[in-house]
Amino acid sequence: MLWHYHCPDCGQPLEVEWARHKEETVCRKCRSRHYPPTPDEDPFAYIAGARWPPELEQIVIAHKGAVCSAPGCFRTYNTLTLKKPISKGGRISVDNLIPVCTHHARDKGEQDYEEWIQNLRERELNEQLAAVTLPMVQAETPPAESAETVPLAGYVQLISRESNTRLMPLPENRPVVMAPFLRGAVRRLVFDYEWEARGGGEVKVYLVAWPRGEEPRLDFLESEEFAGLKAVKEHWAERDARGEGCVTLELPPAPMGRWTAAVVMEGNGAFAIKEFVLAGCD
């Protein structure tokens, strides 16, 4: 595995074994002694081939975050992908690698990043236009003495959604869904989902939220020491049962800015969430 970079003194293209990229070397052109740049120091230095070492992935995540890079997706990343594929001249560098979830890694495939984003936005726009009437509700009739008009639809901010999935309780109350959102006009969170229980059993579905920088300990979820906001829905399901559920969490007036929403499942039995929508509304 070779690490390709340019000599910091004369600009000569050089390469060293990745395992030795932190050792001092000598430029074969100007004969200067130097240390090859690390991925942190040169995001355009690259590795030849189709694989990257774990150290490079850690640096990409440190620079670009652990959330999927697809617009509107807030899933935690599962892998990296190349903005410009190797088949089209792309290279394995910090600049060219981006974090994505499994779904969007498959969706992008060998497309160029800009082409993929354009196609993705067109599909999402078509979906939004097709669904625009779904959240609309008829406003309540205002009192007779009021001439003020009431809007037909409230504010909705889509935070996360997924279908054809299988979310099950994780150890230590680890979230099965976690995504950031902007408070803005959001006054409450809604987690709407479909579930099945192949083995029956009991489960609690928690909807949790906290402002940026105030992450609570989720292992205290059922304790009075829990510092976040939470709402819960309990299910007692028989074997092979199916159904729908919804958890609503009211948010306080402040603080504003960036928040995080998370879903935690706690229980036993083969209870799984198959499809969900997590949204904020006024």
Q: What is the compact description of this entry?
A:
With 282 residues, this protein is mostly beta strands.
Strand order of the largest sheet: 2-1-5-7
CATH topology of the largest domain: Jelly Rolls
Instruction: Estimate the helix proportion, in percent.
Output: 10-25%
Q: What is the number of helical segments per DSSP (H or I, 4+ residues)?
A: 3
Give the SSE order as H and E letters. Answer: EEEEEHEEEHHEEEEEEEE
The CATH first-level class of the largest domain comes to: Mainly Beta
Strand content: 35-45%
Query: Which descriptor suits the 3D outline?
Result: elongated
Number of domains: 3
Low-confidence stretches: 132-139, 141-153
CATH architecture verdict of the largest domain: Sandwich
Largest sheet: 4 strands, antiparallel
Give the helices and strands, then pairings:
Layout: E1 2-6, E2 13-17, E3 25-26, E4 33-34, E5 46-47, H1 54-64, E6 79-82, E7 92-93, E8 97-100, H2 102-108, H3 113-131, E9 156-162, E10 177-182, E11 188-197, E12 201-211, E13 229-237, E14 241-250, E15 258-267, E16 271-281
Antiparallel strand pairs: 1-2, 1-5, 3-4, 5-7, 6-8, 9-16, 10-15, 11-14, 11-16, 12-13, 12-15
